[in-house]
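Honest question from a wet-lab person: if I give you the sequences of every part of a complex, can you actually get the arrangement of the whole thing, not just the pieces? Trying it with mine:
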Amino acid sequence: MDTILAGFSDAFTLSNVLFVLLGVLIGQLFAAAPGVGSLIAITIAVPYTFYMSPVAALGFLIGINKGGTIGGAVSAILMNTPGSPEATASTFDGYPMTQQGKARKALRAAHFSSVTGDTLSDLVLIFVAAPLSIVAMKMGPPEMAAVILVALVIIAGLVGNSMIKGLIAAFLGLFMSLVGMDQSTAAERLTFGIPELMDGISITAAGIGVLALGEILRQIVFSDSLPRLDQKNSESVKAGEPFTWQDFRTILPTILRSTMIGTLIGAIPGIGSSAAGFLGYTAAKRASKTPERFGKGEIRGVAASEAANSSVVGANFIPLLSLGIPGNVAAAIILGAFLIHGLTPGPQLFSEQPRLVYSLFAVMLIGDLLNLITGLFTMGLFARVIRIPLTYIIPCVVVLCITGVIVADSLFDAWLLLGMAVAGFFMRMLNFSFVTFIIGYVLGPMFEEAFGQAMIMADGDPLYLLQRPIACVFILLAAVVLVSLLRQHRRAGKASAILK
Amino acid sequence: MRLIKHCAAAVLAVCTLTATLVSPSATADQWPSKPITLLVGFSAGGGADTLARLMARALEEDLGQPVVVENKAGGGGVVMATLLQRAPADGYTVGFTSDSTFDALPFIVRTAYQPDDFDYLATVTELQNALVAGASAPFSTWEEMLAYAREQGGLTFGSLSPITTKFAERLAKQEGIRVRTVPIKGGRQIITDVMGRHLDVGWSAGVHQAYLNDQGVKVIVAMNSERLRTSPDVPTIREQGYDRSYTSYFMLAAPKGIPAPVRDKLLAAIRKAATSKDVANLAEEKMKFPNVVLPAETLTRFIQLRSAENEREFSE
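Yes, you can. This is the full assembly:
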């Protein structure tokens, strides 16, 4: 109890709160601005957290993550263009509401649904993570290898429309992660005698290159002509029908349902907020007595999508904190930030630094609160931000990307960054999932390590696995997931064949 | 506003100009006349990095020039040492890492440098190397561990680096037991794995000291040449009949050939910083590493001796 209080009081310093606030605002802004999502903001921000204390740094990044959950809804609702991909399902009813002059109501519904979903999933995290981490102490190398296997199978199958392309991207990520020094023999792998490569390709360079700069490159080349917000819609943000207490009561059951879905999805590594948004929306439509109103400006539709995609954010930290396995790309990038600050997420973090873990929880709750308060003012403001043309946004982002990498790593890594950006560009062009690429890059070395260790422990005896029942369960699970995903893909393949 | 900008630009220009003009003509009397770079062989965060940063701060106060810390982690310090060797020997670039970077790794990995490419300046702390087991392990002493290994048909050993792997090979050979070496990244993971009894024993360079309790770990044998401060009752590996021990240090080095007057000044400043209250406090209290500050001559001899030992061992 003392540790909990100490942890919470550590979090409540002025500088920490200010950093969380800054993060929330940046997250909202990036998610609202066209072309750049909050994920890009997190990747770019990591190197700048280098000089903060661990709590401030993580608070800042978590703030961005949280701010992004409400920013993305703005352009989805006002312009029918999701500011970040996870807000796609919010366009279905959000934009029709705008067309009916109810933009103000829709924005507020999105705001409150997001914050409620996010806060509830944080609470689940806080209550579940510590007991889970005790169980996680029972996980040795064989169990870790099995869990990572499950994560890899789910990710490879779920992302993108081609499983083969997803797997190719994941293996490319794995391949990139091989660069550097082999842990057991200290032999150099793929370093070409360059000393800077001995420590491998830095996660900042890989992440910013593929995720942020790659996307920017694509936008420069294809200079997406974005839809512009027209005057009428922009006015209804201020003057339209207000959001009432009655509205909140109407959407509350939807919020709770979507939060459950989002939290569950967040806790499983690899699915992510976009899928959660769609699932939450579909579930709300199915549960509704008037499903025909969905897609025509139903306020529950906005709430369903936003609560579901936001509740992924807190729950993503469940596998990250209890097992050290990132649930999605944002969590993978935040894992990198943990490592930069000398912290290894996983069961031992709870026993070693319980105080820090509770500060982290406190910071998350502060972020929720700030998101709630600032959203009241900023969402109207962002209605104007989304009118900034890409010509101004892109140069700023490029400068931030490059200086960030130089700050965190070195000039050498800036060249690596450019290479990775080109790779990220082509992956987008050829429809290879950059999500599986990055996850492969992050999970690859973890899998290699745990698998190698497990093999040595087993001493080449396959029956050794029977002594590790937990590992057996996870391997079975991986097999089940793989088979069901293959079936789904075959069915989807048949369906699309019929459509043609 | 514009005025401020212009002033700032002017100041910056003058600074750059002086820096470029002064540096080539800098002599020993003027040293240090520009910022000093401290290359650190560990990533940011964590104990070793904090120690290096405190050293940098203490040096800065003493020398009156900024000391810029650059983290060059990787390969157990090889990345840092490779860059350090290439730096000019003018006293403006200094490296911080553990001695194994210089006296062990060149014989294990193909490094671009050799042990005699550097001037060794001073140590800051002595590490506390130990063989540890989970508190619930059915053995507590060296003899019990060997008996357990014979009975169970072998031991699993969490290895930290090629050097500790080599130790496991010697152990297996000398005692006639099977040792299955599991390479593990990072000392903390080894502690977690022995605590959870996933591994029988593991190597710790000192992290174990925070876990010496009923749920944590116990020390089976001390790997340093002397007994460990936090486990004074546990015998050392030499006491168990081995002809070598594994004492190691966090230490500072510079490219070979720094002009003697500069070197003297640098050594004096480093000695002062390493014995300063901040550094000593972090080492002794937080990291529980003895603040052993060996002078340059002793350290150089130590590294030569250890290099010879490792060269022999790894060419076997």
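Two things worth pointing out. The first strand of chain A starts at residue 180 and ends at 181. Chain A touches chain B at residues 50, 54, 137-141, 180-181, 183-188, 195-196, 198-200, 339-344, 346-348, 352, 449, 452-453, 456-457, 459 (CB under 8 Å).
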